[in-house]
Amino acid sequence: MSQNPSNDAGRRKPLHFNAFVMNTSSHIHHGQWRRPDAGQTEFNDVNTWIDLAQKLEAAKFDAMFFADVSGLYGDADADFDVYVNEGLQIPSNDPTVLLGALAVKTKHIGLATTSNVVQNHPFNFARQLSTLDHISGGRIAWNIVTGVQDNGARNYGLDALTDHAERYRWADEYVDVTFKLWEGSWDEGALLKDKENGRFSDPSRIHKIYHEGPRYRVEGPHLPSPSPQRTPLLFQAGSSASGRAFAARNAEAVFIIAPSPAVARELIADTRRLAVEAGRRPEDIKFFPGLSFIIGDTEEEARAKAKYYDEYVSVDGYLAHAAIVDKTGRVYPPDTPLAAVDTNTMKGFTEWVSKHITDREPVVADLAYLQAQNSRVVGTPEQIADKLEEWQDAGVDGINVINWVIPGSFEEFADKVLPVLRERGLAQTEYAEGTLRRKLFGSDHLNERHPAAAYRGAFAAGPQSWVEADALRAGVTSTA
Ligand SMILES: Cc1cc2nc3c(=O)[nH]c(=O)nc-3n(C[C@H](O)[C@H](O)[C@H](O)COP(=O)(O)O)c2cc1C
Questions:
Q1: Span 16-479: which CATH code?
Q2: Which of 216, 261, 443, 452 has the fewest Cβ atoms nearer than 10 Å?
């Protein structure tokens, strides 16, 4: 679908801006934590995050987006010295827990956490996010990830990272359980708080879900009552064929790393096409590339700053982060041609990079190069605004702003770039009222085209015991 980024008056539509962060010292731009102005070394201190969240809210960022991992990157059995030396996502703290603190210290900004299907049982996870959605007044988003680390899988009792296609089947069942709990278990009006008649809730409007699948058996009901959004806003970040199909069915926002607006355009068009095939509309999914900015009042100043940032670059760090392992968990050397890579990890990212480097043989080190160089925009606020217009013309709806240092990168972006973007209509000046989903899509709840909506009101007429549930499933199986 072609996007029309301008409104009737010819002004640009605002892009959404997320601050992309991680509860650790070295997230994306490795080595920068050594800079004197880098505050991310103090990530254990909750005030680092509260201060940042409040600054971002004052600047009208749409959301704070926390990445997360379940273990270490790299070779499954090699030493992990490089990660520890670099502070590369170890030590790191749980973002979902942190959101509880940020929720009470902010009022408007969206709060997105990343959680891998391996790390938490869906019943417990659904309860945690409902609780956070209550605490925050409906500002929670979930970045659904399936994990990319062997070590992350081994931390949860598996021998190795689950096969790529199977990970997405796992994610399908995982989200299915959460959708049943969030959307179907409690009907509207079930919560009474009727002091006179002594009825807290209405049992006829609260349902067990009797979910049974290959990995999970969950009876329900959901323990929390419905939170403002019920289902949190759903982010996703995979871009392989299975990843795009999963996003097309389930995601409301997709985080992409694209080497150029042209590649983003292709990826977006394809995912939107798949969304339509899945019964949704192209505009039901918003796309966010990750970009970082080096901002100068003049071009010379911006270039000089880039040189200074480069002095702190850790090549070892970028290579270690981009390390791609084969299916037995062994790291490919950086000069391995991408055509020779057979991986279970970042399949989509690897495929899209190989497809779009056409002037030479793409190699594993190009993945590190892309993170380090291609995602950065160096220039004056006006030049940055021009670049963002190019991304918007390619169909993106917002930007995940990747930081070099905390809080400086976001302060600079807020002070220097956002005013120029606002003049062009490219950034919001005020928050819209209501939940995060209402701010982005105009309604508190998932729209009726989303698969989770099918569970609304579905369980009153459904099975009322495991015996009935099993019989129903057996019937469905035998007629299938
Ligand atoms: C931009 C981007 C950000 C991601 N962030 C995370 C993350 O924070 N935690 C995580 O476990 N995986 C993360 N991933 C991994 C994806 O969720 C996914 O598991 C991976 O890309 C493999 O899926 P694919 O082959 O479909 O792309 C990210 C991937 C991309 C492209």
A1: 3.20.20.30
A2: 443
